[in-house]
Amino acid sequence: MSNSPTAPALFDRAIILTAARDAVLKLDPRKLARNPVIFVTEVVAALVTVLWLRELILGIGTPLFSGQIAAWLWFTVLFATFAEAVAEGRGKAQAASLRQSRSDVQAKLLLHPDANDNLYEHVSALQLGLGDVVLVETGDVIPLDGEIIAGVAAINEAAITGESAPVIREAGGDRSAVTGGTTVLSDFIKVRITAAPGSTFIDRMIALVEGAERQKTPNELALSVLLSGMTLIFLIATVTLWGLAGYSGTAVSVVVLVALLVTLIPTTIGGLLSAIGIAGMDRLIRFNVIATSGRAVEAAGDVDTLLLDKTGTITFGNRMAADFVALPGITETDLAAAVLLASQSDDTPEGRSIVALAKSEHGLSDPDFGAQTPVIISFTAQTRMSGIDLGARQIRKGAVDSVLHYAGLTMDRAPAEFRAAVDRIARSGGTPLGVAENGALLGVIHLKDVIKPNIKERFAALRAMGIKTVMVTGDNKVTAATIASEAGVDDFLAEATPEDKLAYIRREQQGGRLIAMCGDGTNDAPALAQADVGVAMQTGTQAAREAGNMVDLDSSPTKLIEIVEIGKQLLMTRGSLTTFSIANDVAKYFAILPALFIATYPELSALNIMHLGSPQSAILSAVIFNALIIVALIPLALKGVSYKASGAAALLRRNLLIYGLGGLLMPFVGIKIIDLLINALHLA
Amino acid sequence: MTLIGWLQIAVVLALVLASLVPLGRYMAQVFTGGRTWLHPVLRPVETGFYRLAGVDPAREQGWHSYAVAMLMFSAAGFASLYAILRLQAYLPLNPQGFAGLPPDLAFNTAISFLTNTNWQAYGGETTMSHFSQMAGLAVHNFLSAATGIAIAMAVTRAFARSGAQGLGNFWVDMTRATLYVLLPLSVVVALLLIWLGVPQTLAAGFDATTLEGAQQTISMGPIASQEAIKQLGTNGGGFFNANSAHPFENPSALSNMLAIWAMLVVSAALPITFGRMVGSERQGWAILSAMAFLLIAGVGVVYWAETSGNPLMAALGVDPAMGNFEGKEIRFGQSMSALFVAVTTGLSCGAVNAMHGSLTPLGGLVPLLLIQLGEVLPGGVGSGLYGMVVFAVLAVFVAGLMVGRTPEFLGKKIEAREIKLAVLAVLILPMVILGFTAVSAMLPAALSSLANAGPHGLSELLYAYSSAAGNNGSAFAGLSANTPWFNTTLGIAMGLGRFAYVIPVLAMAGSLAAKPRAAASVGTFPTDGGLFIGLLVGVILILGGLQFFPALALGPVVEHVLMLAGKTF
């Protein structure tokens, strides 16, 4: 990975200060209404404040007690808004630094678009705005979709069309549109950017972490519904308690009922819910991945199948030529000379490795074309062959079946020696490239794939999580199977065309599975759009980036695995804190109920199993615990619960033990300690 | 507690256990339209009904039309039952010449039998004619139970199907539940009861001279047939006021065991049916285990509390060896009374063979809590299953996130819509129970119906509304409930407890049925193992229990500590 995902210090001073101010601003009830649990807390905090003032002015009741309850209720609300503000602050800081520093596509922004001086400065494509004019010269990648305002250029649009033949684009007329991600092969053009600004994705991402425009993700929404429902249930339980207590001859004070209500409603998770969601986004940004919707992050946790391109993900991109296998009647040197010719303009690492091998092992030197003009045949995803036409000589190298097809053969009718060589190479984990000249097979090039270290362990971890890995490769079945077994993937898609990918995704989805994939070309766009999580490479075309729901700024296909883990961690954090929050209620009942009725039924002190000092200190301790636990859990909400790849049953057992049982027991201890402090300080 | 007592409990539960698999699989066969061994006899009758009613049995209903059919059917049932009760003086089979019921009592009773509650604000033998008992009440004992089963099957199909619009056909499910499940079982149980000495006659009763020489009219009637469906359909509405404590309803220890078996068997077999229909019988067993765990714990507490007895009585010289025997029948004994108490309240049956109001405070807390936990242990026929599914959905939602996936139950994603509907459903019980109890607790007109002061009086109120809203129907004796206030509010509580619960549940089923069924992997939250069972138990206790904890603390809990402190009211 090109960068190490470092988080800012958990409590960065600047972020904390801004967050403290934002926390107060967020008390605006109109904003808080989005969070029903905390909204209810704010309403009753205001109510208790009024009651406290009344007691203070009229000199009745227990203003010291009511005042403290009111203060801690306000703290509860403030801690919740603070949690959200901190998460937002961290997310925004992260996104801002991203916007400044990171982009793989550099653009030449013209300083005087209308002049002819062509003065430009290098800027990141992400910083381009609508209407900016950029200069694109030979070899440059067009940063964004746009319109040519001056110049003519030959452009390689293979990335979007799969056609390797360059097309001519020029200013004016209907051939003036150019697509981001395509390459200018000759000349230069001035392009006015017509696509949405380059920073769209980052802008969208910032909107996802910012309070005002932040949309709740589907699961967050569902959880909010549950929390609101529970708030309503406990509202019923406390309001009706007034009547039941009245029957029993106890006049329960509103302050105490409010205290009971606030400790029972799920304020902990209610207060931390949005912070958890924002922090999940933030973790993604730290990995240089930009999600265009919160839904995608959740879906990442649900992914059942990962579609991984072999090259770059499972193996190093560079397959190296290791051997030339000539067919009978052809010398190895002839074969080497032929492939050297065919690879002359092949700039891929494979092509370069073939040239290197031909020169080093067979002592050949660069050929001299003389008067002849070679026609270079580039590799395309459809033909899966490249080569050269030199006068009457047509040399082709490429995927075995393509070369066979070119030679008018099928695998069955190919010479036995050819079949044997292909088989042997494929079974050894290598990639055979067929070589043919003028329709006749010459031999096979043995390309060796190097599998990335540690990738096998990662797949094993994914398998333990229940995620199936599928390797996608253009290789033939035998080759694919060998590499698949060596790398430890569960399945592979050999000789895959973009259509195969799309069909595979559809098939998996029909079986009820969620698919994640990454891709860069426009021909990947349909599959990216179809996949539940589509990660587009920043180096990819605009179309691909629009089709996916995440963009990886590092363009590292391995990122998919981290993305899935981030999604899972987000959901786990949410679930764990919800469970913790609900389990807390048991202890709070045991603190408050005996205190509530002790005047009428002194015998109920049998329920005071924590032996809290006095009824008032018991109630106050529960309220204080309830407020402090929010602050105490902010770091956990921001960092996420610790996550180890394992099966669902093991994860559940572990989290249920920590957050379920822990949530049941911990408040007993916490409330007791607070009660001891309160009594020591004579606060109640 | 004695070993022989526990053995008796074990025997009854073992008999239930032995019946679950055959009955569960049989019902799965029935509701998926498969052939059963009763087909040669019943199939022509079934198709005859469809032809008669103009129902196309192949037509699938979405949740909406399913719910509308159920509501229309219930409305028609309510109207006809209300009319029968009001007009019974003019109807046949009224040998005792009973008058029609007053409007509030007729309303209460009609709702009560319609909702499978069978709350009885009247004494059966002194109020109801044979016609009302047979054509009114007994008919609804079948229909209300069949409605419950039908809804449970609709909910089951929501999980069994993938991307489906339909939940089945209400009319078909109703007909099959009655014809293939309830009727054959009722015939067998009724015959067994008659063999065990339960009367079955159309005579009015006869006059007898007691040992003291007094004249007494002994009521008789078609008791065995009513008794069978009363238990099998978890209805609980007895022929007699004394219900299953009456020697004509429940003459012996053996008939008592049969009664417990009969009320448990259908509700306990339905999870197996559920498991089978969703393609994993193991899932059914997991749900059943959670039910069984809480139910048996309840039995244990009642048994322990009752045999521990009341220290105040012991202080007065009552032999403490037998425990608290007030309100219990000698022929059943402590263990079979404890089992009956827990089962009838865990089940929303509401038949009683002991007076719940006479239980010790903790012994009385158990039936109250079992009702308040939502009548899912194992709950009424059908209603227990769909209630449990709601809890399972909530449990999976809360804890399912902890495995790092958005929650799913049986491959169905649980999203905002499902949660909204599940929450709407679980809101009903606390709203109705606590709301009405709190209002009644401050209303002098209501308080005058209480027989006891102090916490026990509060328990009476709380129990009445819990029983009504939970569609249980048993009572904490002591409350004179046949007043306009109670007849009306309890009637409303019963109606809300059934219909306001079922509508969101059916809507949830509709939404779930339409979703594709996701494939399971090792990353999926396993819902058929011990962990899930524990979780389900925890969610039921926390979600159900916490709502009612304050109310219970002021009722039975404080009564218990006061008893230990020697205070009475």
Structural write-up:
- The complex is a heterodimer of chains A (684) and B (569).
- Chain A is α+β, with helices and mostly antiparallel strands and 684 residues long.
- Helices cover 52% and strands 16% of the residues of chain A.
- Chain A has 24 helices and 21 strands.
- In chain A, the strands form three sheets. In chain A, strands 1, 2, 3, 4, 5, 6, 7 and 8 form an eight-stranded antiparallel sheet that branches. Chain A has a seven-stranded mixed sheet with strand order 9-21-20-19-10-17-18, with helices on both faces. A six-stranded antiparallel sheet of chain A has the order 11-16-15-14-13-12, sandwiched between helices.
- In chain A, α20 links the parallel β20 (533-537) and β21.
- Chain A is elongated.
- The two termini of chain A are 57 Å apart.
- Chain B has a domain at 22-205 and 219-278.
- The radius of gyration of chain B is 23 Å and the shape is globular.
- Helix content of chain B is 64%, strand content 2%.
- In chain B, the strands form two sheets. In chain B, strands 1-2 form a two-stranded antiparallel sheet. Chain B has a two-stranded antiparallel sheet with strand order 3-4.
- By secondary structure, chain B is mainly α.
- In chain B, β3 and β4 (412-413) form a beta hairpin.
- Chain B has 19 helices and four strands.
- At the A-B interface, α7, α10, α21, α22 and α24 of A face α14, α15, α17 and α19 of B.
